[in-house]
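Newbie here. two chains, one complex. Structure please?
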Amino acid sequence: SQELEQSPQSLIVQEGKNLTINCTSSKTLYGLYWYKQKYGEGLIFLMMLQKGGEEKSHEKITAKLDEKKQQSSLHITASQPSHAGIYLCGADKAAGNKLTFGGGTRVLVKP
Amino acid sequence: DAGVTQSPTHLIKTRGQQVTLRCSPKSGHDTVSWYQQALGQGPQFIFQYYEEEERQRGNFPDRFSGHQFPNYSSELNVNALLLGDSALYLCASSLGGLKQPQHFGDGTRLSIL
């Protein structure tokens, strides 16, 4: 079965600093999804990546999928307190298929 | 445009009891998936419903069952509750067969005493 590992498990950054979260798969990724979760709440969809080498940006968040489609990174530029939360990567094997998630990365932004 | 809604938001049960959780998908979506998220972990896939049938199932015992109604809403039933069933139960909806992200509700927090 496919497994996703996220690193780091948690990080604390000073407001205004950049941060990067990695998601590594044991198998080639078909589709890779990034979600954000506030503690105890639902998941908010951030970005979806499908093609090797693909890169997407939304506001201050950029996600990339490497050429071999086995690793993705999420980068936040000039972090703000609103970026605090748990970031989860998820992957599926085919369109509409179940998602397998990593363990999550807990981000705290210090003002 | 209403998103995915789940009820109830919180629930407390005792061991051995049975529970039913409910989910209404995002408008226009026809596929509903259920996930269990234990504290400090990523969500684990339970099962997925499409056209009122269970299409996929994760590694969960038969105590976990579900149903999808003609209006695409769904229920998750858990029988003979165990302490280990305490978790956040998340419902996600999507449009079947298309490469679109799943949209999640805020979840039901289930506590077993």
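Moderator note: The two ends of chain B are 37 Å apart (CA to CA). The longest strand of chain B covers residues 87-94. Thread marked as resolved.
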